[in-house]
Amino acid sequence: MAVDLAHDPDVAALAERTARFVREVVIPVEEAHDGVLPSEAARVELQDAARAAGVFAPHASPEFGGHGLDMRARAAVFEEAGYSLLGPIALNIAAPDEGNVHMLERIASEQQKARYLAPLAAGDVRSCFAMTEPAPGAGSDPDALATTATRVDGGWRIDGRKWFTTGADGAAFAIVMARTTGVPGDRGGATMFLVDATNPGMTVGRHIPTLDESLFGGHLEVEFSDCRVDDDAVLGEVDQGYRYAQVRLGPARLTHCMRWLGIARRAQDIAVAWAAGRQVFGSRLADLGMAQAMIADNEIDIAASRALILRACWELDRGAPAGTEVSIAKTFAAEAVWRVVDRAVQLSGGRGVSGDVLLGRFLREVRPFRIYDGPSETHRWSIAKRTVGRHRAEQAR
C-alpha cells in the first residue's frame, strides 16, 4: 500500500500562512513578555490578527467559523502555530478550548452548540474542563472520581473539589465531570455537565504555582458546593461521561504533541543558529563531534515524533479507537520534546540558561507535559496491558 505523507495543497498553504503569521506577528509579542500572554486584551488582539491573516480556528467546522481540518491536517498547522508559545492561543487552538470545541461539536445538542460552542469557537469566550481532583480523587485513575451530581427537582446538584483546572480564571463556563452513580473506585458512572461561571455554586479558587505559565488562565482549584444546574446542562447522556471523555482526550493528547513539536523545532533552530556561528577551541561549535551528535539526535527526535503523531492521527481520522497509537505518540513526543529543548539549552551554553533567549522558558513549559494528559508511566502501563491482552487473544485462537 502506497504511503503519501504530503498534505493537500490547501492544508500546506494554511500551514505556510500560519508559519508566517507566527514569525511576523506572534513571536515579537512572545519575546516582549517572556512567553506569557500579559492580558485578556492581548489575547483578543492576537486573535483578531489571526482572523485577519485567515488562520483562525483551523480545527472548528466552517459552520462555526473555522477551517474544518481533520486530525492529520491539524498536525501540520498546529505544529506551525506551536513554534511560539503564544501561537496556539492566537489561533484559538490552545488547551483547553481546542479540546472543548472538538468535543462540543461531537456531543452537544443544537441548543448547547448555540449557547456554548459558537462563542467559544469564535474566541468570544474561554472555557475550562474540570475533571482532575486533589488526592484521593480522580487523576491518572479516572475511576477515583469523587465529585458527585445528585438528582434534585428540576435538575442536578453538583458537589466536589477540582484542581489543575486549566484556564478557569476568566472562563465563561466549565465542562464538569461528576459521578452520577456508584462510589469512587467504581468503573463508569460519570456524567459531564455544562456549568456557567456565574453559577453561585461554582467557586474559582487559587492559582496553583507550576513550572509552566504560558497556558492562559492558569491552573486553578475550583469548588462546586450545592451547585444547581438544569437537566439541559447534561452534556450527552447520563453515566456516559467516561466514554465522551475519550472523544476529547485522544485528540487533545495529540494536539498537545503537535503544538509542543513546534516548540521543539524552535529550540533546535535557536541552538543550531548559535552553534553555526559560535567559535570555540579554534573551530565552529557546529563542527565539533559532540555538538553534531546533539544536533542530529534532536533531528531524529523531531522526525520520529512527527511520524508517530501522523500515524495516530490517521487512525483517528479513519474512525479507529487508536488508544495504543495515541499513548505511544504522547509518551514518545512528551519525552522527545523535553530532550530536544534540553539539548538546545546545552548547545547554547551560558546563553541557553540566560534570559536573552527563551530556551529556559521552553524547558519549564514542556516538562509538565510528561505528567499532563496522563503521565508517561500510565501510558506505558496502558500500552503494555493492551499488548499482553492482544498476545493472549492470539494464543487462544
Question: Any chance you could write out the topology, listing elements then pairs?
Answer:
Layout: H1 9-32, H2 40-53, H3 71-81, H4 87-90, H5 97-107, H6 110-121, E1 127-130, E2 148-152, E3 155-166, E4 173-179, E5 190-196, E6 202-207, E7 219-230, E8 234-235, H7 241-277, E9 279-280, E10 283-284, H8 289-317, H9 323-353, H10 359-366, H11 376-396
Parallel strand pairs: 1-4
Antiparallel strand pairs: 2-3, 3-7, 4-5, 5-8, 6-7, 9-10
Helix pairs in contact: 1-2, 1-3, 3-7, 5-6, 5-7, 7-8, 7-9, 8-9, 9-10, 9-11
Brief summary of the model shown:
By secondary structure, the protein is of the alpha+beta class. It folds into 3 domains: about 10-120, Butyryl-Coa Dehydrogenase, subunit A, domain 1; about 125-235, Butyryl-CoA Dehydrogenase, subunit A, domain 2; about 240-395, Butyryl-CoA Dehydrogenase, subunit A, domain 3 (Up-down Bundle). Helices cover about 50% and strands about 15% of the residues.
